[in-house]
């Protein structure tokens, strides 16, 4: 990413939150300068956004057509919680694809490890929720460490294929269920014995919503921290030119492995929260198609952009959930078969959208947004009060810092 | 002994199916550097179109099967050529985007097939001979295995002859070897791209119709399930190597059958392990070039 060199390499302070950080797109000089100028207002804005989102279960808002009902209703909170968890998962994939440039087709494996791992531990043992989650997370680290160490010995398409193969093996394991643990094609329901009452039942959906939001914020901050850390800079260097990193004495393998394990572990964490929210595990989360949908979200949002991944995932989840409703609506049912059949398949519409974005909107949503911002800036650089983040008052900050 | 023979021959038959999908994948990757996720959709479309054509004559007649195979191959080729012209060509040289477009196409097309033909498998009717078995060295082998082996061998022969003895084959072989040089010599490789897609699509469409005969059903998801193994075959054989794909299909399928029988249904795992092993020992695959 184009995080400026003079930003602290250590974790960002408490003011940072979703919305903070460098703008999307790579190698844009203008973006680097404005990133510093915009950092503080963005951090504050992000913090406010999280607070507003956190208050949603207490409010009665709705967006007709997008949300199924008012925001205090369990159905809406369930959908929004799913959005936040999917966004967190997309962020973990962003760490692979956007930061270190690894195209993985097996990311679902680590997510499924979280979902199924926690489900199995809760069902088979008497361990309470938090220690159980810790056990699963440790298992996730181990799994990702071993598989990452093997897969990363190859690069490019071969790496993608090895990760696909391992994930496929996991998928077969879950579906065939040789040890009678995962419930096969049926999946497995959440055993509520060890789960605190606050997370059980439809009435408590809003608690789960807050958990989902917290998971997203934590994932975002960790992603931000990784990108700003030395490892993150090394990862970006490996993405841009691996040979050069090796020549100057870096160790691309170690860097890639570290980021891979971190991303996979975060995915496992998101998986545990997903189990609570959906109160069950189904084999669909371990399929190659599931990884592909995460890839689709990240690309829709814009590869290399953190908030792009979040927006892409939220957009995808809402569309995926709501297009089904649209498909069943009377407006569609009345159409002739030529139109009705494609329109009643959400995946067809999403896939088509995805193809169009890849072909005509390079950089996805984040790329389009940054181009739009650039155009506005170029047109009116001296506008009173400035356009968005281009406030003149903050200019000296950027120029005063030696880079 | 007869069990072993049965497993070996059905394994080779399954390998024939894998090869029909993997040959196209391998050629496309070798020439264009694209991992084609939509290849399974060509197969599924070929299967549905072929069966629709066969139904017109009678699904359980030899004429119907022959017509189905031809229509399946033609449909697969047409779908692949249209994909190349419409989606791949505009993204010239942007490999990641090209792969992403095929991913999108795969997702969208499977959903479309589900919308048109329903999500559940449909049984097909086969000619009487294909439902029977033949005694071979003491083993009773389903006749579909022989059909698959025959078809795959024919396709291998045709593709090899095409690559060896035609001008376009020459261009394709040269393009796999060194595309920049071919372009520098003033040859338009883009026609070769479309051609490779069409050939791969034809093989996949043929494989789709044959798969319906072996599996005894047709479903919108059959392409995706075969595609995963075809990917594995392609990588093990060496991306871009046709003989590699042929050898690897047989090895993978036979191994899968043996492990499924002798090692308690672990065929899929063994195959994955084999892939990991091959990639670690020989990252370019059995017959791939080192640079790949």
TrEMBL record, chain A:
Keywords: Cell membrane, Membrane, Transmembrane, Transmembrane helix. Residues 8-25 have a biased composition (Low complexity). It holds the Pfam family BPD_transp_2. It comes from the Bacteria. Residues 1-30, 376-403 are annotated as: Disordered. The keyword Cell membrane applies. Residues 382-391 have a biased composition (Gly residues). The chain crosses the membrane at residues 43-67, 79-96, 102-122, 129-152, 208-226, 253-277, 292-316, 347-369. It is a multi-pass membrane protein. It is found in: Cell membrane. PANTHER family: HIGH-AFFINITY BRANCHED-CHAIN AMINO ACID TRANSPORT PROTEIN BRAE, HIGH-AFFINITY BRANCHED-CHAIN AMINO ACID TRANSPORT SYSTEM PERMEASE. This is Branched-chain amino acid ABC transporter permease. It comes from Myceligenerans indicum. The lineage of its organism: Bacteria, Bacillati, Actinomycetota, Actinomycetes, Micrococcales.
UniProtKB/TrEMBL annotation, chain B:
The chain crosses the membrane at residues 6-30, 37-58, 64-87, 99-117, 145-163, 193-212, 224-255, 261-281. InterPro entries: ABC_transp_permease (IPR001851), BCAA_transport_permease (IPR052157). It is found in: Cell membrane. It is a multi-pass membrane protein. Signal peptide: none annotated. Keywords: Amino-acid transport, Cell membrane, Membrane, Transmembrane, Transmembrane helix, Transport. The keyword Cell membrane applies. PANTHER family: ABC TRANSPORTER ATP-BINDING PROTEIN (PTHR11795:SF442), BRANCHED-CHAIN AMINO ACID TRANSPORT SYSTEM PERMEASE PROTEIN LIVH (PTHR11795). Belongs to the binding-protein-dependent transport system permease family. LivHM subfamily. This is Branched-chain amino acid ABC transporter permease. It comes from Myceligenerans indicum. The lineage of its organism: Bacteria, Bacillati, Actinomycetota, Actinomycetes, Micrococcales.
């Amino acid at each position: 990413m184009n995080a400026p060199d003079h930003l602290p390499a250590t974790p960002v302070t408490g003011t940072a939150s979703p919305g903070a950080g460098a703008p999307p797109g790579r190698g844009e000089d203008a973006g680097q300068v404005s990133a510093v100028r915009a950092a503080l207002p963005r951090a504050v804005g992000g913090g406010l956004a999280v607070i507003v989102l956190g208050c949603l279960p207490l409010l009665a808002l709705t967006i007709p057509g997008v949300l199924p009902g008012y925001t205090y209703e369990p159905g809406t909170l369930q959908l929004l919680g799913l959005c936040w968890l999917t966004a967190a998962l997309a962020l973990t994939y962003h760490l692979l694809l956007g930061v270190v440039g690894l195209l993985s087709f097996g990311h679902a494996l680590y997510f499924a490890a979280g979902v199924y791992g926690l489900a199995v531990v809760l069902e088979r043992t008497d361990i309470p929720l938090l220690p159980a989650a810790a056990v699963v997370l440790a298992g996730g680290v181990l799994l990702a460490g071993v598989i990452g160490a093997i897969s990363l010995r190859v690069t490019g398409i071969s790496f993608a294929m090895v990760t696909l193969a391992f994930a496929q093996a996991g998928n077969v394991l879950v579906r065939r269920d040789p040890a009678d643990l995962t419930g096969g094609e049926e999946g497995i329901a959440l055993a509520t014995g060890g789960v605190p009452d606050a997370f059980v039942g439809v009435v408590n959906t809003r608690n789960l919503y807050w958990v989902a939001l917290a998971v997203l914020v934590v994932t975002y901050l960790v992603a931000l921290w990784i990108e700003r850390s030395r490892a993150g800079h090394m990862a970006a260097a490996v993405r841009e030119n691996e040979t050069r990193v090796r020549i100057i004495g870096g160790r691309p393998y170690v860097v890639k492995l570290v980021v891979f394990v971190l991303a996979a572990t975060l995915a496992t964490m998101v998986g545990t929260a997903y189990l609570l929210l959906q109160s069950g595990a189904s084999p669909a989360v371990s399929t190659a198609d599931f990884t592909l949908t995460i890839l689709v979200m990240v690309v829709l949002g814009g590869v290399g952009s953190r908030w792009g991944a979040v927006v892409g995932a939220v957009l995808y989840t809402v569309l995926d959930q709501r297009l089904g409703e649209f498909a069943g609506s009377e407006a569609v049912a009345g159409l002739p078969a030529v139109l009705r059949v494609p329109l009643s398949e959400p995946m067809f519409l999403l896939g088509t959208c995805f193809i169009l974005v890849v072909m005509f909107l390079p950089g996805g949503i984040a790329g389009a947004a940054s181009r739009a911002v650039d155009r506005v800036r170029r047109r009116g650089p001296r506008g009173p009060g400035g356009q968005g983040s281009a406030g003149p008052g903050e200019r000296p900050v950027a120029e005063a810092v030696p880079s | 002994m007869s069990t072993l023979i049965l497993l070996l021959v059905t394994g080779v038959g399954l390998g024939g199916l894998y090869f029909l999908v993997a040959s196209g994948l391998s050629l496309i990757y070798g020439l264009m550097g694209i991992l084609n996720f939509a290849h399974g959709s060509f197969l599924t479309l070929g299967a549905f179109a072929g069966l629709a054509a066969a139904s017109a004559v009678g699904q359980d007649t030899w004429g119907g099967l022959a017509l189905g195979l031809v229509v399946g191959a033609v449909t697969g080729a047409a779908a692949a050529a249209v994909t190349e012209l419409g989606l791949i060509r505009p993204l010239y040289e942007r490999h990641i985007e090209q792969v992403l477009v095929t991913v999108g196409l795969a997702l969208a097309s499977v959903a479309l097939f589900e919308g048109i033909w329903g999500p559940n498998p449909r049984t097909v009717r086969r000619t009487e001979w294909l439902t029977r078995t033949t005694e071979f060295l003491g083993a009773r082998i389903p006749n579909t295995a022989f059909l698959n082996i025959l078809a795959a061998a024919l396709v291998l022969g045709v593709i090899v002859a095409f690559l060896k003895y035609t001008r376009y084959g020459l261009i394709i072989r040269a393009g796999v070897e060194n595309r920049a040089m071919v372009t520098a010599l003033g040859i338009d490789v883009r026609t070769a791209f479309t051609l490779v897609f069409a050939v791969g699509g034809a093989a996949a469409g043929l494989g789709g119709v044959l798969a319906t005969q072996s599996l005894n059903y047709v479903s919108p998801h059959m392409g995706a399930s075969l595609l995963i193994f075809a990917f594995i075959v392609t990588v093990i054989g060496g991306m871009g190597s046709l003989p590699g794909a042929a050898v690897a299909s047989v090895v993978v399928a036979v191994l899968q059958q043996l492990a499924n029988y002798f090692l308690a249904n672990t065929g899929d795992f063994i195959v994955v392990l084999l892939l990991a092993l091959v990639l670690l020992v020989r990252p370019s695959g059995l017959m791939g070039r080192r640079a790949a």
